[in-house]
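Predicting holo structure, cobalt (II) ion bound.
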Amino acid sequence: MSEFYKQLLENNKKWVASKLELDKEYFSKLSKGQSPPVLWIGCADSRVPANEIIGANPGEVFVHRNIANMVVHSDMNMLSVLDYAVNALKVKHIIVCGHYGCGGVKAAMGNDSIGLIDNWVRHIKDVYRFHKDELDAIEDEKERFDKFVEFNVIEQVFDLAKSSIVQSAWRKHQELSVHGWVYELSKGLVKDLNVNFGNNSELDKVYQLNI
Ligand code: CO
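Done. Tokens:
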């Protein structure tokens, strides 16, 4: 066993001790249940730990992460998380948080085949196609990459709004809004893209559901 692996278990013991030092009931209170106000849909990238970058404590954020923070409408894993978060936990906010320098988005800009993941990256390539003219017009590659990351987040926010789960909550006048953020790896700061939805009237008519 590597030293790093063993260290993780030691770290866990220290973390427990530090929490208990502040509050003896810390874990017994947490074990009673959760009512997080936020669902986070982020990238699986190890450098973007959901709770840590926004200073959230255990119990405050329900988290779903995958490669390039995608909302794929046939992904049962994402749909199950979304359904539970909206209908059981009644979260008030859903945040899609992408990040500059995202490997998934980078892969979608190129043509290399990297295996099974090509089929996941395909969804990100669709986003490039939607914004092809604007993206192709950006000569600087880094600037184009950054813009693509932003477009991808915005598209996923729209995809959440198109889902039957989110539209159904809005029809029931449940308090629920969706937001798009991008995390800057080199600074640690989050940029709010100011794409916020709180009802389905802003959706293209073809996606609006009478539910
Ligand atoms: Co990423």
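The pocket of cobalt (II) ion is lined by residues 43, 45, 68, 99, 102-104 (CB under 6 Å).
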